[in-house]
Write a structure and sequence with these properties.
- It is a single chain.
- By secondary structure, the protein is mainly beta.
- It has a single domain, classed as Immunoglobulins (Immunoglobulin-like, Sandwich).
- The protein has a five-stranded mixed sheet, with no helix packed on it. A four-stranded antiparallel sheet has the order 1-3-7-5, with no helix packed on it.
Length: about 160
């Protein structure tokens, strides 16, 4: 009888050990992505005199993300081979981060030209990306743009 008890205990321990080792995390890994909350726009307008636009870009992230800035035309088409120093007039802070609701600010230098300038800020995660279209309007001739001021004295 003692022999049967030992065999029973040994078999029970073996089966228990096998059952415990098969337990694991069967849940799928969370997908790291970025997305814009419902009702939020991906179009940003900045005044010509330059400014800090707080919370200009609002999105949610379920993982790591980073930002990229590309100079574009009014079509907002991202160039095939963008150069790294195209957009010296625009900065995004924070420029990278982790999961949660993100409210990034845009910092733009003054646009003294009369033409508007355009850029795309792309927020990239391991699985997808979001594109924000940024327009900084140009100054009109009356608000200090590059156009020469009228000379009432005729000189």
């Amino acid at each position: 009888m003692r022999y049967l008890n030992c065999v029973f205990v040994a078999v029970s321990l073996l089966l228990s050990g096998m059952a415990l080792t098969s337990c694991g995390n069967d849940e799928p890994a969370a997908v790291q992505e970025v997305y814009v909350p419902a009702g939020m726009s991906t179009d940003v307008e900045i005044k010509p005199w330059g400014s800090v636009v707080a919370n200009a870009i609002v999105f949610n992230s379920t993982g790591e993300w980073a930002s990229e800035i590309y100079a574009t035309g009014s079509s907002f088409a991202i160039p095939d081979a963008p150069s790294g120093d195209d957009v010296d007039w625009l900065e995004v802070l924070p420029f990278k981060g982790g999961p949660g609701e993100v409210k990034a600010s845009l910092y733009a230098t003054p646009n003294n030209a009369t033409d508007s300038r355009y850029a795309v800020v792309r927020i990239v995660s391991p699985t997808n990306s979001i594109v924000f279209r940024v327009t900084q309007h140009g100054r009109s001739a009356g608000d200090g743009g590059d156009s020469p001021a009228p000379n009432p004295g005729g000189e």
